[in-house]
Specification:
It contains 15 helices and 3 strands. With 396 residues, it is mostly helical. The chain folds into 2 domains: 156 residues, no CATH class; 216 residues, hpI Integrase, Chain A.
Length: 396
């Protein structure tokens, strides 16, 4: 059977014939290797092992390397270690429209388990931004394989390197008027049954955490209530903080303002917990509905937030729909397009608009890597807490 007829299979279940596993790839290096990899699959696994302790990064890197490897063997009938610069250009075009769709794209854009026969590497065409991200990750892969002595050269290093222009402004955020609409929708959620009350309290707390804390959705799922702690400032005032393990395994301290702590106590009381968390408590920051205390997955948290925005958009449709104005439709469409990360951008934008020092905003969100300047800003933590507490509020 010709190689091109092979169906895509997940990386962890993939077995390649000798002529496609890369042992004789034309781009293989012939010097001393720094990794014990005899073929392309083993080399990719060695690369992925570096990020195995970061679930989000591992899954993203696995997805992109898996897609390229499968495309190379199924579509081109050649090993990854024989890919040329021209092949990679063709692959980038392929990302924009993976064809034939029956082979590459999951039906209905649904995600299936990796051991499900309906699993496919793609859920649809990739946006221009996702295409760029994929190629950046693959460039990292090839560069690492060259450094490891596995490949002779990086076929992506020949690509034109375009200077990245900073966007003139953040556009994926909610203006205060739209943010007020979201809060109004949450305030109007039904609370007649115990389950409805639990759903309302969780929704309100999740939005509080995402907005006041500026947390990423992955940080909500990965951290616990035991990460809240207190310490006294220079004036002897006891202040609460949230110690967040974030992107790139970097830690940052997020000011847990008086308003945030009040909302935390409200949520914990609704769940039958003590108002304040204890040190080393393993309770997830956001709990499932019911008795389970397992942390919610990123997908589940995304689904909750998207449902909130969809509900708020529907409320706008019902309120403004009779007028049928283009402005009303645009407002609702903007909410329908919003995601959890919009709340992080909204938090940053609203803090900046509220005259919070931009250096403090940077530290609150954990945007910048540590620099010489930021080393001197650590002594200003108390100022950051006070300004965040005074100027960044949710106002339920």
């Amino acid at each position: 059977m010709h190689t091109a007829l092979l169906a895509p299979r997940p990386l962890d279940a993939l077995e390649l014939p000798a002529d496609l596993d890369g042992r004789d790839g034309v781009n293989r290096a012939h010097g001393r290797m720094q990794i014990a990899a005899a073929n392309d699959l083993e080399a990719i696994r060695a690369w992925l092992a570096r990020v195995a302790d970061s679930k989000a990064t591992f899954e993203t890197y696995r997805k992109e390397s898996e897609r390229l490897l499968l495309w190379a063997i199924v579509q081109l009938g050649k090993p990854l270690s024989s890919l040329t610069h021209e092949d990679l250009l063709a692959y980038q075009h392929f990302l924009a429209d993976p064809q034939p769709a029956a082979r590459w794209v999951a039906g209905g854009g649904r995600k299936h388990a990796r051991d499900d026969a309906r699993w496919r590497p793609f859920y649809g065409s990739l946006s221009a931004a996702s295409q760029r991200q994929a190629m950046v990750i693959l460039n990292t892969l090839f560069a690492w394989l060259v450094s490891a002595g596995y490949l002779a050269g990086n076929p992506l290093s020949l690509s034109r390197q375009r200077a990245r222009r900073a966007a003139p402004r953040i556009t994926r955020y909610l203006e205060r008027e739209l943010w007020d609409e979201v809060k109004a929708y949450v305030d109007g959620l039904p609370r007649e049954t115990a389950r409805e009350r639990e759903h309302h309290s969780r929704t309100r707390w999740l939005l509080t955490l995402l907005y006041l804390g500026g947390l990423r959705i992955s940080e909500v799922g990965a951290n616990t209530m035991g990460d809240f702690f207190t310490r006294r400032d220079g004036a002897g005032v006891e202040r609460w903080w949230l110690d967040v393990l974030g992107k790139g395994e970097r830690r940052r301290l997020v000011p847990a303002t008086a308003e945030m702590m009040a909302e935390l106590a409200r949520y914990r009381n609704a769940r039958g917990l003590a108002a304040l968390p204890s040190p080393h408590e393993t309770t997830p920051l956001v709990l499932p509905i019911g008795k389970s205390t397992k942390p919610l997955t990123r997908t589940a948290l995304h689904t909750i937030v998207k449902a909130i925005f969809a509900g708020a958009a529907q409320r706008l449709h019902e309120m403004d729909g009779a007028a049928g104005s283009a402005q009303a439709e645009a407002r609702a469409a903007r909410l329908e397009a919003a995601s959890a990360h919009w709340l992080r951008h909204s938090a940053g934008s609203h803090m900046a608009d509220g005259d919070v020092d931009l250096r403090l905003v940077r530290d609150n969100l954990g945007h910048a890597s540590l620099s010489t300047t930021s080393l001197y800003l650590h002594s200003d933590d108390d100022v950051r807490h006070r300004e965040t507490d005074e100027k960044h509020r949710i106002g339920w």
